[in-house]
Amino acid sequence: MESKVLDGLMRPKSIAIIGASTDPTKIGYTVVNNIIKGGYEGSIYPVNPKADEILGLKSYKSLQEIPGEVDAAVITVPSKFVLEVVDEAGKKGVKGLIIITSGFGEVGNKELEATVVAKAHEYGMRILGPNIVGTLSNSEKLNASFAPLLPLPGKGALVSQSGALLIAMDMATFTRRVGFEKLISIGNMSDVDFADLVEWLDKDETTSCITLYIEGIKDGRKFMNAAKKATKPVIALKAGVSAHGAAAAASHTGSLAGAAKVYGAAFQQAGVVQATDLGNLFDLSLALSLQPPMKGDNLVIITNGGGVGVLATDAAERFDLPLKFAPKDVQEELKKHMPVFGSAKNPVDLTGMAGYDWYHDSTKFVFSHDWADGLVVLYCETAMTEPMEIAQGIKKALDESGMLGKKPVTVSFVGGDKSEKAMQWLVENEIPAYGAPDLAVHAISALREYDRMKEIISEPEETITTANKEIALKAIKAARDDGRDSLTEIEAKQVFSAYGLPVTTTYLAKSEEDAIKLAKEIGFPIVMKIVSPDILHKSDAGGVKVNIKDEAGCRDAYKTILTNAKAYKADANIHGVAIQEMAPWGTEVILGSVNDSTFGPTMMFGLGGIFVEVLKDVTFRVAPVSKKSALRMISEIRGAPILAGVRGEAPRDRVKLSETISSYAQMIVDLSEEISESDANPVLVYEEGKGLKVADARIILKKK
Ligand code: ADP
Ligand code: MG
């Protein structure tokens, strides 16, 4: 539905409160009172079948009685009456419903919730909620909620899935000095969801930044699309990343893919800046609502104290924005604004003697200089200098530089009350200021991160592969027909191979004689493995024998593998023994996938082998994955240098590897109706130009 429909909900010219009450203990009273107190300038229509007047306003017996148009209706009546109210609102021509009432999906009453939404949609109405606090807007002077007051004014919008937290954050805007233009409680998201609000807020002129407190997203792809398209920064704090039922996973990938990893990947791909905690949510909202993105890596730090300078330098490295020395000409000029024992390198240390002039002059010079892509100004309170004067010097310099709004700046003052006041003044003048140097650096690094993500999003997406989906589906069907939801290695390799993945040649032997015939066909040395749908981790069952050099070894291995398998699981259904080409040694990596309940097919890549679950050196992307993104995956794991070639080792074939990752991602998208989890572990990667081999394959199907 187009976002215009949301105008009535988010920017109503008239508002009715259904369930308005004369009883101060009722939410229906609080909401009317809050709307009046907030200074709302549109028409307010309390609706209550028994009252004539509520809080000095004429009250109506029903929606139908209201003489004028009603844009939005706030519903506070008990859940059992909501459906009826929705019907009446539809007949009245109401555009949007703010359903504060709880007792729907959140307590298992999903059917009622769905019925209410369906009814609203019949009339073309949109629903915010149910089970929400309401919505608050400073520019509309509208507090249509039971939160006591409008937040400290700011430029960003904050959307929260938790009502209690929204009220708490509302109050905290004053103590944290981080204001918001809007606070929106999203509740059960029965209709309007995060994606809808991102889309609408992106077009809303009063909003400069969109901050989301997320517990769970329903439609991950819809959210990603909305965020990708947004022209304003989107910040997300995702709660609940610790448990994801990962323990029950059948594949390596399944056990490594927690909510944190998948959400993290999705946010990154959609250009969403991730807040690390509640404090960081406020800090980033401040910076991203007031300052533009940072378009290069050259960060300059100006300080009057070595200590805060070093702390900021450490933080810069931690947040992926390591400092570089300023060019010679910049250093020469800066030396004019500091004593001889100062440092012009970066951090620029003006020394404790620095007052208004040096702060002003150096800030103005650095911020105007093309080399600097962003600036952090630090100040340690001293007995000799006045924090407010320093703040004013900084602000004046920034104004005079003509670069405000073109590149970002953040500030940190460390000190007492005077420093606090000076920072408050800076924030009121739209310069983000923080009580610690690392916070100022974290904030500016988020502006850099935001720009980097947007840059990647703007890259053209190349599509790939000559895949043979039919062959893949045939192998899957074979397993399904057999009543299984896991594929054997042989079947899984057929699927992989259909998507162009270079798998080791593998045949199924049903007898010793068979095994010898097939081994000769492949050529020694060979690898032999148990083939049983009941044995997913073959080595654990003594079901893998590598480097078998001759016929005798082959006979021997055949017997041992079967004996081991029976000892491991007496009733295992055994298809036979796989006779397999022995791949030469290479760097072991893992490719894998999960079909995430929120984001769908999601790809994993990392260093493979038996320690993969211990080292957890893996990275995720919501599929599909372009070759360029695949290369980024390869370079962002901790073990990246191993693939790049360390200690005289030749670099590995990362080009071929990136193509394989990309094809794999295409496969899990194409087959997302079928594949639940999969992995290729190990994939052996060879020297540049020599490609790679998939030695093992595992596919778990969706239950049908
Ligand atoms: P599992 O079910 O235990 O994961 P794998 O098929 O991965 O069984 O085999 C275990 C190990 O044997 C692999 O990690 C790899 O080192 C080696 N291996 C398996 N297949 C091959 C092959 N075709 N060529 C070379 N080494 C192999
Ligand atoms: Mg394996």
Walkthrough of the structure:
The protein is an alpha/beta fold. The strands form six sheets. The protein has a seven-stranded mixed sheet, with helices on both faces. Helix 5 links the parallel strand 10 and strand 11 (182-185). It starts with a helix and ends with a strand. Bound molecules: adenosine-5'-diphosphate (ADP) and magnesium ion.
Number of helices: 24
- What is the approximate shape? flat
Bound molecules: adenosine-5'-diphosphate, magnesium ion
- Strand order, largest beta sheet: 9-8-11-10-12-13-14
Give the total of beta strands: 29
Helix content: 25-40%
- Average residue pLDDT: 94
Low-confidence stretches: 244-248
Judged by helices, strands and strand pairing, the structural class is alpha/beta
Q: Beta-strand level of the residues, as a percent range?
A: 15-25%
Largest sheet: 7 strands, mixed
Cα-atom radius of gyration: 31 Å
Cα-to-Cα separation, first versus last residue? 32 Å
